[in-house]
Amino acid sequence: MDNSEISGGRVADVINRAAAVEALMEERGMEPAAAIARGVQSAEEDWVPRNGARIVAKAWTDPEFRQRLLTDGKAAAAELGFSMPAHHRFLVALENTVDLHNVIVCTLCSCTAFTIIGLPPDWYKDLEYRARVVRQSRTVLREMGLDLPQSTQIKVWDTTTDTRYMVIPVQPPETLGWPEEKLVEIVTKDSMIGVSRLPGT
Ligand code: FE
């Protein structure tokens, strides 16, 4: 359905609708430009996958932190100074192993633990990914470049409003003993969504 056909009436395109909302906010003294600038700044500078990478690197190097992360992800993230919106009530850390691969999705829309692993990529929001990763996870992962052996079990986790996930990728064996700061550099957003594994794992 085309936007302009909703309810048989005329609906402005997104740009005009956004402009109308902004104008209304202006009228009421709500300073939309400042709010938008804050949002853009958060998206570009604060909600970055490096946050999740720091959590993963810490979990790899500190077994006690890893245990706390697996028990209560939100509290463990807060230890490193990372916050989540109030409605993200739980952060569940899913630990990959050689035999188990976790992958996350939001079948309803596009929810992620965005303050921790960054905003979702465009493909994460596509109906194609949301529908197929549940039913044909092995095939979808292979199409995305991750060809898992049959012996590796795949678990798909469907995000909800209050429960957000992050995948803890397997640490590449050649990085054992690396300092945390160096490990942070190798952890990618895709590996924390679970559509890729790190090299050598
Ligand atoms: Fe969603």
Describe the structure.
By secondary structure, the chain is an alpha/beta fold. The protein has 2 domains: 3-44, no CATH class; 48-193, Nitrile hydratase alpha /Thiocyanate hydrolase gamma (Nitrile Hydratase, Chain A). It has 11 helices and 4 strands, in the order H-H-H-H-H-E-E-H-H-H-H-E-E-H-H. The chain has helices at 14-27, 32-46, 49-61, 63-71, 73-79, 114-117, 122-125, 127-135, 137-143, 180-184, 189-193; strands spanning 90-95, 100-105, 153-158, 163-168. The strands form 2 sheets. Strands 1-4 form a two-stranded parallel sheet. Strands 2-3 form a two-stranded parallel ribbon. The longest helix is centred in the first third of the chain and has 15 residues, at 32-46. The chain is globular. The termini are far apart. The model is unreliable at 1-5 (pLDDT under 50). It binds fe (iii) ion. Fe (iii) ion binds next to loops.
